[in-house]
C-alpha cells in the first residue's frame, strides 16, 4: 500500500514561487492500477516524481509498503529505489547499450551475479514479449518495443510498485493499446501495484481501477473509475 500524507511542493526561482502540490492526501491499495489525471501543469509529474524522490517534497510523508520514503537518507533511498520501478514518456533507455545491457543495468547496481543477471534478463524479455531482441540497440526498435524494454528494466528487481510517467503519450493509439494490455497483464500476473499519470481519459478508462483528478496542485475528485464514468 502507498500512503501519501499532507504532501506539499513548490518550485522557487529568484523571482517567483510556483505551488506544484498542495496538501495531497492519497491512499493506493496494493495490487491496484491507480490513475492520476489532469491537464498540463496540474502537478501530475511532480506528484509521481515525489514517490521515488526524483523531486524532493517540501513537507508531508510518503509510505510505500511500510517504508517511509520521505525519511530515508541517501543510501537508504538508493536501496528503496530498487523496489520502485519507473517508466517514462521518452523511454529513457541508454542508446549506446544493447537491450540486454539496458535491462541488466539495475541488476548490476544491485550487485547480482552474472548467471543470475543473464537468467533474469531473459525472463524479463519473455515477459514483455521481446525474447529475440537482447542484442538490438534502442535505435533499432519501434517506440512500443522501446517501452517494452523500459518496462522490463523497471521490473527486473521485482519492485513493489511501477510508476508510469505519461508512459504511452509518445505512442500511436494501437501501440498505446498494446502497452496498456501488457501493463494490465503484468498487474494480474504479479499483483503489482501500478501508479500512472496521464492527461488522457482513454488511458485511465482502459486500465485503471481507481483514480484521482488533480487540478492546480490539488486533488479535486477521486474514486473508482467505474463510478467516475457512470456519474460524470
Ligand atoms: P466522494 O464520493 O465524496 O468524492 P469517496 O467516496 O471517493 O468520496 O471517498 C470518501 C472519503 O474517502 C473521502 O473523504 C475521500 O477523501 C476519501 N478517499 C477516497 N479515496 C481515497 C484515496 N484513494 N486516498 C485517500 N482518501 C481517499
Ligand atoms: P504536469 O505533470 O501535470 O504537467 P508538473 O508537475 O510538471 O505538472 O508542473 C506543476 C507546476 O509546477 C506547473 O505550474 C509547472 O510549470 C511547475 N514546474 C514544474 N517543474 C518546475 C521546475 N523545475 N521549476 C519551476 N516550476 C516547475
Secondary structure elements and their pairing?
Elements lengths: L1 E11 L4 E12 L4 E5 L6 H7 L8 E6 L2 E2 L5 H8 L2 E5 L10 H11 L4 H14 L15 H13 L5 E5 L7 H18 L2 E6 L2 H7 L2 E6 L2 E7 H6 L2
Parallel strand pairs: 3-8, 3-9, 6-7, 7-8
Antiparallel strand pairs: 1-2, 1-4, 4-5, 9-10
This protein binds adenosine-5'-diphosphate (ADP) (2 copies).
Keywords: Amino-acid transport, ATP-binding, Cell membrane, Membrane, Nucleotide-binding, Translocase, Transport
Protein name: ABC transporter domain-containing protein
InterPro entries: AAA+_ATPase, ABC_transporter-like_ATP-bd, ABC_transporter-like_CS, MetN_ABC, MetN_ABC_transporter-like, P-loop_NTPase
In terms of quaternary structure, the protein is single chain
Spans of at least 5 consecutive residues whose pLDDT stays below 50 are none
For the biggest sheet, the summary is: 6 strands, mixed
In terms of structural class, how would the helical and strand content be classed? alpha/beta
Find the count of extended strands (DSSP E, 2+ residues). 10
The shape is globular
Pfam families: ABC_tran
GO molecular function: ATP binding; ATP hydrolysis activity
Keywords: Amino-acid transport, ATP-binding, Cell membrane, Membrane, Nucleotide-binding, Translocase, Transport
GO biological process, one term: amino acid transport
